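Morning run. Coffee first, then this:
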Amino acid sequence: MKWELEKEIKLPTAALGLSTLPHSESLLVSCFDGSILRVDPRESTWETLGHHQSYASGVVSVLDGSMAVSAGYDGVLQWHHLGSGKTVAVEKIHDFWSWQLKASPNGRLVASVTGQYLCGGERYEPAQEKEPSIKVFDAQTQSMVAQFSHLPPVLSVAFSPDSRFLAAANMMGDVRVWDLKEQRLECSWNTPDFTSWGIIKSHHYIGGIFDVCFSPGGEHLLVCGMGPMRDPMAGNGKQTWQRFDWRGETPEKVGEIKDGDRGRGLMETLSWHPDGKVFAMAGRMAQGSWNVALFDAQEGSLIQGMDNKTRITRSAFSPEGTQLFLTGSKSQGEPKEGKWSEFGRLMIYQPVPSDEKTPPSEASEGS
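And here it is:
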């Protein structure tokens, strides 16, 4: 079974966040211009639910799809009632921006991570945080129920399938897992394979773990990004994922992308297929043959790689596993007749038998 592009929808600006909605074919998308969209992929149309004062970095659905929550580089959390289409609450939660926003599988919690890379010493190691790097909110009351410390910048966050544990990872490859019920640090470890020290042009750290994702059973944690580079500005580190068993006394790496399966480029998003047999990783390609790939969950081997010539920022499978949704952006290009092109993208893939190919349908202009 292969996955083919079914539909590509143009959006006004780069799409940074993505969420499916229970009991609905609509999708939530957060964008470069600060807008929060509810997209109808059947009609290739959308409506605007709200707007941040800077990049809208993430959006999630909570409370069985009755509410959307968004976060942005303005450090603000917004709550949008999907029945009325109105923004019902706005709260400043970070002094710096929100790097990533995730919702718990039970739809009752949301977590946002933040942190600015400031020089903390002669070796340009990151300075300690000035505010808690991880904040967790109750979706019903909109009140903060937990906050945790980490070394900034913290780039990624994820809830366990049972919604009890929370993982977060940073630029330096530090991973921490907390028990939300007991409000305590469960375990922590470091992987050095995602962080670079710039030898050429820029003498500072760069990279990090851009997404984390628990396995469907909760026993393993996947992390992704790209391997070290000599030139931090090149963006050509090796496409990388690693898999850890975090439940033992010492967290242990139990899997990693095979060298022959990867090219180069930053990987920004991970998602598991609902059947637990396959996971997807996507981002941008600097060198190689794919920027979106499907992997066998048991063996870790590459099943299929695809190059859609897009920077992919978020991914999600449909609840029934019949579609793979990707959001991202194309090159913006130059304005034509005073108008900028629509460079945001929502891409929809579906599985087809390997001897069949379905041409992508025409994207509608949207509204």
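Confidence is low (pLDDT under 50) at residues 362-367. Good start to the day.
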